[in-house]
Amino acid sequence: MGRLNFNNPTRRDTTVMPAKGWLALAFRVDNPGAWLFHCHIAWHAGQGLSMQFLETVSEIPGTVNLAELEPTCSIWTQYYATSQCKQWDSGL
Ligand SMILES: [Cu+2]
């Protein structure tokens, strides 16, 4: 089993998880939002190797202008209803 490095840990936004292994991650909680954590192998993500961190939920509404996002969501919904290609996995 590996040891945790608290003195000079790797700092990056991607990492490799060893086969049949594990990884530990830590992050400073200073950025309210919904952050996706996922495997970069698409079918792995589709099988469930993804999760979402909700950070400082009470502060999220103040960081997003939902009225500004809504038109894009509406356009997507209209397009998807007519699309020949339907989502069959997680969508990642
Ligand atoms: Cu994977």
From TrEMBL:
Coiled-coil boundaries: none
UniProt catalytic activity: 4 hydroquinone + O2 = 4 benzosemiquinone + 2 H2O
Entry's Gene Ontology molecular function annotations: copper ion binding; hydroquinone:oxygen oxidoreductase activity
GO biological process: lignin catabolic process
Pfam families: Cu-oxidase_2
Top-rank taxon: Eukaryota
Keyword Ribonucleoprotein in record: no
Gene3D superfamilies documented for this protein: Cupredoxins - blue copper proteins
Full protein name: laccase
Species of provenance: Parascedosporium putredinis
